[in-house]
Design brief:
Elements: H1 7-30, H2 37-50, E1 54-55, E2 67-71, E3 74-76, E4 91-100, E5 103-112, H3 118-135, H4 144-156, E6 161-162, E7 168-170, E8 177-181, E9 198-201, E10 204-206, E11 212-214, E12 221-223, E13 229-231, E14 234-238, E15 244-246, H5 256-259
Antiparallel strand pairs: 1-4, 2-4, 3-12, 4-5, 6-10, 7-8, 7-9, 9-14, 10-13, 11-12, 14-15
Helix pairs in contact: 1-2, 3-4
The structure holds 2-amino-4-trifluoromethylsulfanyl-butyric acid and cobalt (II) ion.
Cobalt (II) ion binds at residues 106, 169, 200, 202, 233.
Length: 260
C-alpha cells in the first residue's frame, strides 16, 4: 500500500531531509585516508542525535550501526569497523538515514578518495547522472518504469551493470514503504506516479556485471566479479506541483522549464 503525503506531511519530510543533507555534508568532509569507518559511524550518530533525531539504520533488523560504509567492490550495507580504514584511491559509499519527528530520510553518496582511477571517477559521475535522469522522470502521470528505464539505459550505455537484487523504495513514517523502485524498467509500465508520493531513488551501478552476493556478516553486499560499484540516493517527493523535489538535497527542485 502506497501512502501519499499531504502538504503538511511533505513539509515535515522536508525538515528531516534537510537535516540528513547537513549530516551527509559533514560526513563527506570527514572521509579521508586513515579514517576508520567506525569513526565515521560515531560521528554520524553524534550529528544526528545532536539535532534530536534518531539514526534509523541502528538496530534496523539487527543492523549494528548508524551508517553503511561500502568500499570498492562492496555495493551497499558495509558495516563500519575499527579495522576498516579508508585508503587513498578507495571508492567509498556512505549511506545514512534518520528519523525527525517521526519522518524518515534516507540518502547516500559515493566519493573517490585522493588519487582515484579515471574509470572509477567516471563510474561515480555516471551513477549520479543516472539518479538525476531517473528523477526527471518522477513527475505526475509518469510510471515507475520510466524512472528505472532512464537509469538503466544511461548506465548500460557505458557497459556498466545495473544491480537488480536491490532497489529503491517508498519512504515516509517507515524507511521502506511501497512501492519498490527498481533501477531498471520498461517505459509506461508499473505504478502511476502521483503528487504526495515520496520515494528513495538509489541507483547502484557496477563497473562490471550486476550479480551480487551477501557476505557472511549477514549484511555486506559485494559484486560477484569483484568490480567496483557506486551508489547514489536521495529521498524525493513528487510535490504539490506534480514535480520531483529532492528532500535530502534542499534547493534542488525541478521546474517545468528545467525539465526540457
Ligand atoms: N539505506 C538502505 C536502504 O535504502 C537501508 C540500510 S539497511 C540498514 O534500504 F539496515 F542499514 F538500515
Ligand atoms: Co534507501
Amino acid at each position: 500500500m502506497i501512502y501519499l503525503k499531504n502538504p503538511q506531511q511533505l513539509d515535515d519530510m522536508r525538515k528531516s531531509g534537510a537535516l540528513l543533507y547537513e549530516v551527509l555534508c559533514r560526513l563527506k568532509e570527514a572521509v579521508k585516508p586513515g579514517v576508520s569507518t567506525a569513526a565515521l559511524d560515531v560521528y554520524a550518530e553524534q550529528l544526528i542525535r545532536k539535532h534530536k533525531a534518531i539514526p534509523s539504520f541502528l538496530h534496523y533488523e539487527g543492523y549494528p550501526a548508524s551508517l553503511c560504509v561500502s568500499i570498492n567492490e562492496q555495493v551497499v550495507h558495509g558495516i563500519p569497523s575499527e579495522s576498516v580504514v579508508i585508503r587513498d584511491g578507495d571508492v567509498v559509499s556512505i549511506d545514512c538515514g534518520l528519523i525527525l519527528d517521526g519522518w524518515q530520510a534516507d540518502s547516500a553518496f559515493t566519493i573517490g578518495v585522493g588519487q582515484v582511477a579515471h574509470e572509477h571517477r567516471k563510474l561515480i559521475d555516471v551513477t549520479e547522472e543516472c539518479f538525476f535522469r531517473g528523477v526527471r522522470q518522477a513527475v505526475n502521470g509518469n510510471h515507475l518504469g520510466d524512472i528505472g528505464h532512464a537509469i538503466q539505459t544511461y548506465a548500460e550505455s557505458f557497459g556498466y551493470g545495473v544491480i537488480r537484487a536491490l532497489t529503491g523504495h517508498g519512504i515516509g513514517r517507515n524507511m521502506h514503504e511501497d512501492p519498490s523502485v527498481p533501477n531498471f524498467g520498461v517505459p509506461g509500465h508499473g505504478v502511476k506516479l502521483r503528487p504526495g508520493m515520496t520515494l528513495a531513488i538509489e541507483p547502484m551501478i557496477a563497473l562490471g556485471d550486476y550479480h551480487v552476493s551477501q557476505l557472511e556478516d549477514g549484511w555486506t553486499v559485494v559484486t560477484d566479479d569483484g568490480s567496483v560499484c557506486s551508489h547514489y540516493e536521495h529521498t524525493i517527493a513528487i510535490n504539490e506541483n506534480g514535480l520531483p523535489e529532492l528532500l535530502t538535497y534542499p534547493g534542488y527542485a525541478l521546474t517545468e522549464e528545467s525539465r526540457a
